[in-house]
Amino acid sequence: MAAEEHGQGGGWTGGPGVTGRLHERESEIQSARTALSRLARARSLGTVATGELLLYSGSAGMGKTSVLDQVRDLADQQESCTVLFARGGERQRAEPFRVLRQLLMPVLSKLSETERDEVFGNWYGIVGPAVGLTPPSGEVERIDPQGVRDGLDYVLTQLAPRRAPLVIVIDDLHWADWESLTWLASFAVRSRELPVLVVLAYRNEFAEEADGLVRQIEQMASRHHELHTLSPDSVAELVRHQFGDDADDAFCRQVWAVTAGTPYDTVALLREVRDQGIDPVEESTPRLRDLAAAAKGQTLQYWLEKLGRVTLQYAWAAALLGTDIKEELAATISTQGPKQSAESIRALVKHRVLTTLPNGRLEFVHPLIGTSIYQSIPAATKTAMHGIAASAIEDSGGGLIASSRHLLETIPEGDDLLVRKLRRAADQHLRIGAPEAAQRCLKRALSEPPSEEMRAEVLYELGCSALLTDPMATINQLRLALDDEYGLSPDLRVDAVFRLAEVLAHSSDLAAAAELCAEEAERTEPGPDRIRLQIATFMYQTLARDEADGPGRSRRLRSLAEHLPTSGATKDAAHAVHALRAWDLTLRGVSAAEAIEEADAALDRGRLPAGLGWTGLTWGFELPALIGLTFAYTDELARAERLFSDAIVEFEKAGWSGAHRGFAYFLMGLVRFRRGFLLEAEDFLRRGLRLSERIGRGITLEWDIVGVLCDTLLARGRVDDAWELAQKYGFAPPYHPTVMVLPDAPTLYGKLLLARGDRAGAVAVFSEVGAALNARGWHNTVWAPWAGHLAEALAPDDPARARRLAKEAVDRARMFGSPSAVGTALRMEATVSDGPRAVELLLDAVNHLGQSPAGYEHAHALVDLGAALRRGGRLADAAEYLYQGMELAQHCGADGLVARARTELAVSGLRPNRLRTVSKDALSQPEWAVAELAVQGVPPQRIADHLDLPLSMVHRRLAAVHRKAGTGPEGLAAALGLPEPKAEPGAEPEN
């Protein structure tokens, strides 16, 4: 294949239909040949191939395109090899996902429906619009770019084995759009895990903001080839390939001197020499420098002389379009009819400016030619042609995503029609996960400028466009929108305030968020908007770490709930207030039953109301989270788990793969921890932590996850691992400066100190947190069990105070009333009590925890009770509880508790029996029999009599029922789908 038809550079020698060779590029080609051979060999052997990443970089004209052409030829020669190719376009960097669309559409568009479902899984709604397979969804207003990247990772992970060996080749990466480049940088990390060869070529001319991405790509490269200039001997061979052996040495040497051995410049110069009929002899060398300058400069005058004005007009249109040029579209932009455009194409192909692709479209023979043509367009003509191109693309069905890059190049003229078009384009960009592209459109709209009535709306949209990616930009733009002289409409102003408060809160400035909403509520007319702002104020005050008047806020919130209509325009607001009330009652530890009642009132027939969804923009995700957290701390763990599972699905469906999905993983980890599924809890929490690290260090989500993960590791008996984790992430005083950490961070830190034997440090921490929470009126012993742990830390030195604190904790737990709260508090009181009193407390604790879904706490109490009985000499009773506790601890993944139970059994002279695996997936038939009677209100003793079972076995089966159902006695019927009790409590069952 001739050089000018195959990259026009790189020192290529060959002819039409012949695979030539590239001078001084042998090692570069060999790297690709070796990588391709590895992939092919792995496929033939049926083994899994490891991927490779090859990089070719160098300045303009070094032959990168020619190298990639030969790599593609080599890949095409491999049996069943799938080659995907794309090229960055200098004029297309503002078109989001342009490179990825060019790369993936040819293969993804040909998938059968079945294969498409397998390749995309649940990601079609996220990835499909980004790669151009389907229009942007009208259901989701904005997609998180990270969600698109995660979806693309999934698609390539599924596609690669199905199209193996897969070769991805991208030329001119330095001109790739930001969205494609960002994904490629992340995919480079995973490429070695797949049967794929990724080959990238670029100049070192990336935008400054892309430096980190480029370094990430380069760090993952298997081989990185820097292409250099050709030697005099290689240039001489190129000359003689063109002109034969008659070319004398002096001429060859001068060609090398004037081109500095740059392959592209050398080929361009030789083409000019040939076209002008110059002999390759020493006498011609004085003309070479001028010819080289002309060929390299390629000014407007050069192209006019070479092509003529009409043909050049078509070339200009092609240059505006960039890569993969549609003939009809270029003809429309250049205002040429079919006959004239066909003549222009023939002339451009003849002069080696354009070449025809297999798909019938056009492409510049070399990117440098396209750059030269574009730079030759006069400024005024260029602007006008961009405007024509935008309209032509829309008229041909290309859509605003493709046409908007041309709108950005037009001259501002105060055209509101253009402003509206740019706003619609921005909306489309947000719906495919390209907020940077949306912001470019909105900034261009502001520079138009928009009419005075429209300006604040554009500022508002510009602020909202960065909600998921750039909090500071959102804050600045929304403040400008709110301060705009002409202002927003009342409803849009409230929404802007809510969005601004949301970003302030997510940036850890909850005090500012609450103050903003409170001030705006004061100036807003009575009605739904004002109520919405008042509720937001309460929410941010609740979530703040410090609050001057917690009890007062609780009273005001209760008053709002009592006077708020539950139908009409304030129906959603009423649901929101109930959610806040539920969480407030939970934190105060007033009554679990009341908290559950409020949480139920926040729902609509057991589901989140439409206006209170996880991805809804009216209220945000905090209120659904508070409903789920209420369930989590009131022993309605199965209901909490369903809510949090819905959150994961909804966030993934919306493409919110950053902090939102990380928070959902945290919530699932928390509820699994509460249920005693410690291994699953650790898995969810570590997945959330990985997402948190991807966002940044020190954010609230990190504190939430690390705290519960430390607690999970403590429960598993891995004290050193928990401490190392806390040290790594700085989980220590002064904790998060403004945001309440879930659950209480100081209490968790005190537990760490106590587990490590630092009683003095623990006493100081628990004393401080107790004073702070008491002042705020928060007395929930599950959320922050500081009193019981403080009692344990004080017991050796001040046993009287320890017993008093533990008793106060039990009283508070009984006031709250959930079985797990009471049972855990009783267990902790037993740790500071002696002899028979400890046994009595632990028997009561086991009874309460057996009615809760808190598996780990139940196992802990069982082992504690067995140990206490063993110390009292009641070995037979001790063995029963130790065996039960050990089996349940094994099921929970609490290895430390299992080891302790084994030790207690060994000390008792008993041999630990073989552990049995307890299933959490379904109730056994004997468990169903007990559950059906319990739901009817039959007490345990009468269940034992009716089923002819020992009472201890009934208690054991009841505990398994509550643990598997994920609920306490009140929610058992609904959880198991059984009818509510009809008989009075204590009535005999019917035979």
Structural class: mainly alpha
CATH topology of the largest domain: Serine Threonine Protein Phosphatase 5, Tetratricopeptide repeat
CATH class annotation of the largest domain: Mainly Alpha
Largest sheet: 5 strands, parallel
> What strand line-up does the widest sheet have?
4-5-6-3-7
When the domains are counted, the total is 6
CATH architecture tag of the largest domain:
Alpha Horseshoe
Task: Describe, in plain words, how this protein is organized in 3D.
Residues 1-22, 969-991 are annotated as: Disordered. It holds the Pfam family AAA_16. This protein is mainly alpha-helical and 991 residues long. It has six domains: 25-226, Rossmann fold; 232-300; 306-361 and 378-483, no CATH class; 545-656; 679-907, Tetratricopeptide repeat domain (Serine Threonine Protein Phosphatase 5, Tetratricopeptide repeat, Alpha Horseshoe); 925-976, Arc Repressor Mutant, subunit A, CATH 1.10.10. It is built from 48 helices and nine strands. The strands form three sheets. Strands 4-5-6-3-7 form a five-stranded parallel beta sheet, with helices on both faces. It has a two-stranded antiparallel sheet with strand order 1-2. α7 links the parallel β5 (166-171) and β6. α1 runs parallel beside α2 (64-77), α28 crosses α30 (622-633) and α30 packs parallel to α32 (659-675). It is elongated and about 115 Å long. Mean pLDDT is 89; it is low at 1-8, 12-19, 914-920 and 983-991.
Brief descriptors of the model:
single chain, 991 residues, mainly alpha, Rossmann fold, 5-stranded parallel sheet, two-stranded antiparallel sheet, disordered N terminus, disordered C terminus, P-loop_NTPase, nucleotide-binding
